[in-house]
Amino acid sequence: MYQYHYGYRSGTNKTMSSHLKSIAKSVQKMVKLQEGNVILDIGSNDATLLKCYDENGLQKIGIDPTGEQFSEYYPEDIKLVSDYFNASNYFSVCSDKKAKVITSIAMFYDLESPMSFVEDIKKVLHPDGIWILEQSYMSTMLKMNSFDTVCHEHLEYYSLKQIDWMLKKNDMRIIDVEFNDINGGSFRVYACHKNSIYESNQEKIDQIFSNEKKLKLDSEQPYKEFKDKIFNLRNELCNFLSVEKSKGKSIYIYGASTKGNVLLNFYNIDNTIITAAADRNPEKWGRKTPGTNIPIISEEEARKAKPSYFLVLPWHFKNEFIKREAKFLASGGKFIFPLPEIVIIGDKNKHYIFK
After folding, report:
1. pTM of the model as a whole
2. Name one Pfam family in it (predicted).
């Protein structure tokens, strides 16, 4: 699966680029980087994150099995390893040093063997190094109705308790945890070797454990409630689209994303309802959405068609899209955001929320 044409390029999205820059800044506050230190990004995509480190003399390495398709975006000071991460692949390009900083953003839940991955992290992490892993957070996923996170590449869904367990099994520990809105709600975990120099924010960590326990994540209850909410949202959105279509309104997709295809197929929203899907990536133009056969066109072509509605599949980039499409909204067009609740936004940022 992780071959040429997989995934999207981080640098094309302003929100994601800014978010990755914030990760680099948080690293720079926590770690005093020095010339010769190794920075490793696992799942480095187009090197957007690695390019955010502005210190001179850093040794920057990106490991990504899909990285070759983005190699043109890697400057000379970043070494790209187009392969899967393991300790052997790391030491093949950096045999004499361990990494002072390791980042793995939105990829840890893709792993078939997460424990082996953590074992290899421990092997390549400097004694005073930190590992930052960020991904969708189970509790937020349930709260935000982010069922579209459940797609073919995401094999696991974590709360902090599971991350803590895996780290302890490998003589590592959590330093701190932060939450953000990326990808429908994510958590960023800072980790280190068990006996490293960093002080753990234990009070905060324990509070998160307590909150997770209250949610009863080890029982069926929260998942049954999650299922019920998703089925209700599906019925509401499909009924709305059907009524608007019967009125002669034109409905387009905004953002032919991977997660969006989960929603389209589960909701059975296909080319009988949607005219076309607009996307920024030229490689998608002329293709169709899998399973629902909606033709994919450029954003410019979609704007010229002046649709009544854009159904926004990458809904978590809401603020960016509202700014980008201000002219569309001002001309009378509307955005439909399907999650975490159905919100329709029109001119002057007016909100219409389904209840």
Report:
1. 0.89
2. Methyltransf_23
